[in-house]
Amino acid sequence: MRILVVEDNPDILVNIVDYLSLKGCVVDALHNGTAAETLLGREEFDLLVLDLGLPGLDGLELCRRLRTGLNPLPVLMLTARDTLDDKLAGFEVGADDYLVKPFALPELWSRIQAVLKRSQHQLVRRLTVGDLSLDLGTLKVSRCGQDISLNPKCLKLLEVLMKHSPGVVSRATLANELWADEPPDSDGLKSHIYLLRSAIDKPFAHPLLHTVHGRGYRLVADDDATDH
Predict the structure, then answer these.
(1) Which of 34, 41, 65, 147 sits most deeply, having the most CB atoms within 10 A of its CB?
(2) What is the pLDDT of residues 42-70, one digit of tens each?
(3) DSSP character string of 169-213
(4) Domain that residue 64 falls in
């Protein structure tokens, strides 16, 4: 498990890093919010332990930027502020849990395990491709923070494509997923692809749904994919 700890108090930072390392974690440590944002843009982590008061970029703003960018990275926020308003502010920007200083290191470890357990369950219920998101529990679709309305067939089509992304899904597979033993006429799938593309791509700058000639369709966030 790889954890990024961002804490400006050097003593607290060393204690956390040493403790988590003993637990078998790979730990990266930073004391500056701006540096943390840069590293998070380049590297992948399983969890972020984030102090609220940081130089450069504070913890609230860093967490807000992560969630605005649809980054599902679990965030455990640390702070010396223990008022209800402070806690609510952390949760409102997307923190998964909130631990008030001073704290015992075993409690920190317990919170980390609980956050990871919850996030693993939530990740199974949410699919993302680039800035497009589908919540499998609520069937809510959004892109760039904008809600998108889809009919049931298009929802199913989107789910299949997202689960296979960035791979190509054949027309036969998509037709079978949507209609099983009752395949539509030859234009049925094409019509639903058109409707889906109109909803998730046309209002936005970059297309996600791409046609692969002779093979099928795929959802991919890469700009170099060829769209038709």
Answers:
(1) 65
(2) 888 989 999 998 998 999 999 999 888 77
(3) EEHHHHHHHHHTTS---TTHHHHHHHHHHHHHTTTSSS--EEEET
(4) 2-124
